[in-house]
Amino acid sequence: MATSHLTAETIGQTINENDIVLVDFWAEWCGPCQRFGPVFEASSEQHPDVVHAKVDTEAEQQLAAELQIFSIPTLMAFREGILVFNQAGALPAPALEQVVKAVKDLDMDEVRAKIAERETADA
C-alpha cells in the first residue's frame, strides 16, 4: 500500500475513518526526511492494514503550526482517532517497526480510561 498525502482538509477525516494512521511530517529540503522516506514507504508495503500518510510541512504550514510540528521529520501515530505516538527525528526501520507493533498492540479501552483520568484530574 503506497503512502497517501494529507492536507488540512483531509487529515481529520483520514484519522477518524481509519483504525491506525501513521503521519510523517516532512519537507523536500530536509535531509533526514529524505532518508526516512524510503523507510516509511517500505513500512506501508509491510503493513497494508495501517494508513501511512505524509504531510508536506512547506505546503501545509498552518497545519504544521496547529499540530506544533517544530522539527522534521516528525512521526505521529493515531489509533481510533487518538494520538498515541508523537516523535521528531528519522527512525531506522527496526524502530519504526517497533512503533507499528506497539500501536497495533495497544489496549484502547485502557488508553481511553487514562485519558478520562487525566481530564478528571485537570478539571
TrEMBL record:
Keywords: Disulfide bond, Electron transport, Redox-active center, Transport. SUPFAM superfamilies: Thioredoxin-like. CDD domains: TRX_family. InterPro entries: Thioredoxin, Thioredoxin-like_sf, Thioredoxin_CS, Thioredoxin_domain. PROSITE patterns: THIOREDOXIN_1, THIOREDOXIN_2. Residues 1-105 form the Thioredoxin domain. Gene3D superfamilies: Glutaredoxin (3.40.30.10). Belongs to the thioredoxin family. NCBIfam families: thioredoxin. This is Thioredoxin. The lineage of its organism: Bacteria, Bacillati, Actinomycetota, Actinomycetes, Micrococcales.
